[in-house]
Design brief:
By secondary structure, this protein is mainly α. The chain has one domain (12-123): Globins (Globin-like), CATH 1.10.490. It has seven helices and no strands. It has helices spanning 8-11, 14-31, 36-42, 46-60, 71-75, 82-99, 102-123. Helix 2 crosses helix 3, helix 2 crosses helix 6 (82-99) and helix 6 (82-99) packs antiparallel against helix 7. It is globular, with a radius of gyration of 14 Å.
Length: 125
């Protein structure tokens, strides 16, 4: 990052911005025909889940590192396939484009694709 350039975390509105984005995103995830059932079967407390994921994205975007770890281990037992990642990324891209400016949406989509690739590779998807 260049001197004077703000973090992506700051650009998207910090914690509150992440919560807004994630709340909208997961509202659609929960209704999605393919990936919705996977999430609905495992998440009982959506506000808590969104807070945890906001902690993850906080660190990924240059904000405080608030995620406790275990990203790969949490996804391994889900039996995710390539199509699941594709649906997740499509929804993520849609929400980034709808709720963020173009530059920030692009940066967040790049981070998500890289993360999805790492998870998929670790799972053999």
């Amino acid at each position: 990052m260049n001197k004077g350039e703000t973090t992506l975390y700051a650009q998207i509105g910090g914690h509150e911005g992440l919560i807004r984005l994630l709340t909208r995103f997961y509202a659609d995830v929960r209704q999605h025909a393919v990936i919705g059932p996977i999430f609905q079967a495992r998440i009982q407390d959506w506000p808590d889940h969104i807070e945890k994921i906001a902690g993850f994205w906080s660190g990924m975007t240059g904000g405080p590192s608030l995620y406790g770890g275990g990203l790969m281990a949490k996804h391994l037992p889900l039996g995710l396939q390539t199509e699941h990642f594709s649906h997740w990324l499509t929804l993520w891209s849609f929400h980034c484009e709808q709720h963020l400016d173009t530059r920030d949406a692009t940066r967040l989509k790049v981070l998500a694709r890289a993360m999805g690739t790492r998870i998929a590779q670790s799972m053999g998807a």
